[in-house]
Structures are given as C-alpha cells and as structure tokens.
Amino acid sequence: MRIMGLDFGSKTVGVALSDPLLITAQGLEIIRREEENKLRTTYRRIEEIIKEYDVEKIVLGLPKNMNNTEGIRVELTMEFKEALERRTGLTVEMWDERLTTVAADKAMMEAEIRREHRKDYVDMIAATLILQGYLDRLSFEKNK
Hints:
single chain, alpha/beta, Nucleotidyltransferase, domain 5, five-stranded mixed beta sheet, 5 helices, 47% helix
C-alpha cells in the first residue's frame, strides 16, 4: 500500500508517493497544464500513478490563509478533492499546507538550486512535505 501526496496549484499539481511501509515520502513529478480549468489530463495522469504504484489513499494540501481563513484556492481545492474521490474511488484526506512552499523554497536554497530552476521543483517538494507531515502523524498516532 502507498499513499499519494498532492499539492494542487493553478497550473501544476505536485505529486509525491510514500514508500510501501508508509515511513517516507518521495517526490515523483509535477503534472503541468496550460489552463487552470483544463484538468482532464491531470486526472488521467493521477489515475495512471494510482494504478502503477498501488495507491490506496490520497493526501491533498489544503491552502488556507495564514490567518486560518479560506479563500478561493480552498474552494477550488475542495472541488478538485470531490472530483478525485468520484473518479478514483479513493479517500482523499486534506492536510494543512501552510508554509510548505516556503519550506520547499528554503530546502532548495540550502541545496544551492539556482533561483531560476526552483519553480521547476517547488510543487513536487511541497507535495513531499505535505505527505511526510501526514505520514509522521500516522506514525505518531500508531506509537502512542
């Protein structure tokens, strides 16, 4: 069993996968699209990954504002969640993603990835951080 982590953006979806033991998250890819509302190819690619890696659950980043309010991005993300559940039949759990993009950017700076290349990786790293946070919570609850 694996869990997929997703960071849903206006033109990209960062994808991460857990290892089979649900200990670590690894970045897999970034799904790109030309227009924000054109999601057919995005859904199809996610479905392919689910089959290829035997994914049993999805964790989707919830983009709340820093003051805990919900804006238009939360609304769009919730619509994406509902569509994913309908299309895949899998449970999609929401995970607070505040500061994951900041943490991803900081990690790339520390790894000395040039500024112009960071946008190529930030969504995948953010998806990895979202999923790793979820896996860490699972581990903590299991070991209570």
